[in-house]
Amino acid sequence: MSNKIINKFASAKTYIETCDKYFLFVFIPSIVLIIAGWYWGIFIAPPDAVQGDSYRIIYLHVPSSIYAQLIYWIMAAWSAIYLIWKVKLAAYLTKSAAYVGLLVTFLALFSGSVWGIPTWGTWWQWDARITSTLILFLMYLGLIALHDSFNNQNKADNLMSILTIVGCVNLPIIKKSVDWWSTLHQPASITLTDNPAIDPAMLYPLILCIVSFGFVLISMGVLVSKIIIFNREKNRNWVKSYG
Amino acid sequence: MLPHRKKRLQNILLLVGSSFIGIFLILTALNSQLDLFYSPSELNKNNLPQERIKLGGMVKKGSIKYEDTKVLFVLTDFEEDLDIEFDGIPPDLFKEDSGAVMLGSFDGNGVFVAEEVFAKHDENYMPPELSK
User: Fold this and answer.
1) Contact: B19, A189; criterion CB under 8 Å
2) Whole-model pTM?
């Protein structure tokens, strides 16, 4: 019984069918919510007392940075599922998520640099937060490059999954870098333990942006994964008869 | 869980565990070398470093003075103070009672001559009317 459920969820065919069925329910809200979130953040939320309007890039920077790390955790979970249960779908999804992770990590670094120029007076410093995020960017790049460099797809999936899991060590470092070492980057404004250091008028649009980013990235990931799955399973009958 | 799957799970846990221990040892060994800057109390006043370093701390209240094109101020970590001299335009967020990081070196008289000054900002965000 339980194996039957697992097999159903592990099937790339079922995955594609489910995605096709629900895609618009994620994609349309993602566009609506991101427009609403950015509009609220950029035009309605008040300026910051210290930074003026330049703080508004937070509505791009913070969602990107959160998902840059979250996507890696998800990839690590999928990698473990692939390595233990040999669920091929998990490896396809890990590879797909790596592209999305690469993009958001780039956005996090880029928006951070753009923010740094007017506030810090520099777009780059080799502080622990910025450097460890650059390493995360290179990890995503490395995972994709590693996977692409093998002709034997099973070997590629295996090695990518192992490297993904090893790369997890970087995630707590990124998170805690601003507490463990002296950095130019400030400590976290939103934590689980303390009240947010952001005024509610600025925090609510930020939360909306974070939620909407999730929807956008899921839509993006689904599209990437369709390309990857159709490519990997192109000789299967269900792919040939698709659509 | 089937035995061969259990074995794989153990291997993964071993892999994760050893990576974390490895990185923990590396970070412990590097310790404060990963800091971006020195704070004033970390320096020995009788034996100031000769090389270019980064200093960081708070700009002491009431200490900023302008002389020609130069900005003079005192950097403090509330234990030790250091005199800083900077010939240039500091960033907008550079102000008294606020964090700053600077790259430069000490001249012969114990004054830190900064080549570049960066402003730190804190994690608090609030509308202007609430901050008064």
Assistant:
1) no
2) 0.93
